[in-house]
């Protein structure tokens, strides 16, 4: 017995044939989709303005955003003008690109020796913090409070592109980031150079405000689930907690970083 669709098509003189799945689609993402893109106006603008980057590899923008880029940075040889849908095909599903996306030249990592232990200087170390949104938000806070830089572990940290760069809103270009193989050894190296490492831990006896004294400080933050790993905590000079008089014992790691950076940036005698 013919289905209603087949009967309707027959009345129109057409034979019903289901379209093969995917036929005629023009919105498939490439199989080799790159994860090296930066998207969103603030992130792309900061990358284009960063003299530490080389010439961009690709730059795709809507007509309006292309005009903004040209007005601020001049004509870009790699500029491609496309509509918002076409731009999105180069990016992960759901990327909010605001009409512009960039494949930048790589940004060179900092070295631990680049971080000068000046009085009042603050450096961040993230232990097993792997969520790009969190790392991006922490970078944004680090830029806002004038942190000297950030240290990440090579194998357990996201790239400084994609959702991370979008969340950082340009801070990827402002805050030097060093990647190391072993965080415990990195803490030892920084300690020898004159830094004092303070690990944030809810079980610590002293509050962060009691521990900070204006000396060059490395704030070491662990993942939300497990906190600092034992060996990393043991290599810190001291552990401290963020006072929470409201009685709620947990903060998102990016929120904890913002509070710690604010506390560390306050003038001290």
Short description:
The protein is built from ten helices and ten strands.
What does this structure look like?
The model is unreliable at 5-25 (pLDDT under 50). The protein has a six-stranded parallel beta sheet with strand order 7-6-5-9-8-10, sandwiched between helices. It has a four-stranded mixed beta sheet with strand order 1-4-2-3. It starts with a helix and ends with a helix. It contains ten helices and ten strands. With 269 residues, it is an alpha/beta fold. The protein has helices at 4-11, 41-49, 63-73, 84-88, 132-144, 162-168, 183-193, 208-211, 230-235, 253-265; strands at 38-39, 58-61, 79-81, 100-103, 122-127, 149-153, 177-180, 196-200, 217-222, 238-240. The chain folds into two domains: 38-103, no CATH class; 112-265, SPOUT methyltransferase, trefoil knot domain (Alpha/beta knot), CATH 3.40.1280.10.
């Amino acid at each position: 017995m013919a289905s209603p669709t087949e009967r309707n098509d027959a009345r129109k003189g057409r034979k019903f044939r289901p379209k093969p799945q995917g036929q005629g689609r023009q919105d498939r993402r490439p199989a080799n989709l790159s994860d090296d893109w930066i998207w969103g106006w603030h992130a792309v603008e900061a990358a284009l303005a960063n003299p530490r980057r080389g010439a961009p590899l690709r730059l795709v923008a809507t007509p309006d955003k292309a005009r903004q880029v040209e007005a601020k940075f001049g004509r870009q040889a790699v500029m491609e003008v496309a509509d918002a849908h076409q731009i999105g095909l180069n990016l992960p599903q759901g990327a909010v690109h605001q009409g512009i996306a960039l494949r930048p030249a790589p940004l060179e990592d900092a070295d631990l020796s680049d971080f000068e232990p000046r009085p009042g200087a603050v450096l961040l170390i993230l232990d097993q913090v792997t969520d790009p949104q969190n790392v991006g938000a922490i970078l944004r806070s680090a830029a806002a409070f004038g942190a000297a830089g950030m240290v990440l572990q090579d194998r357990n940290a996201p790239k400084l592109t994609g959702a991370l760069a979008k969340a950082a809103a340009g801070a990827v270009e402002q805050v030097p980031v060093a990647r190391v193989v072993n965080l415990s050894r990195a803490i030892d190296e920084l300690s020898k150079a004159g830094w004092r490492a303070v690990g944030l831990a809810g079980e610590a006896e002293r509050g962060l405000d009691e521990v900070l004294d204006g000396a060059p400080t490395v704030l070491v933050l662990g993942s939300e689930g497990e906190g600092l790993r034992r060996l990393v905590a043991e290599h810190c000079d001291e552990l401290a907690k963020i006072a929470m008089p409201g009685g709620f014992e947990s903060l998102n790691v990016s929120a904890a970083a913002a509070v710690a950076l604010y506390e560390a940036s306050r003038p001290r005698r």
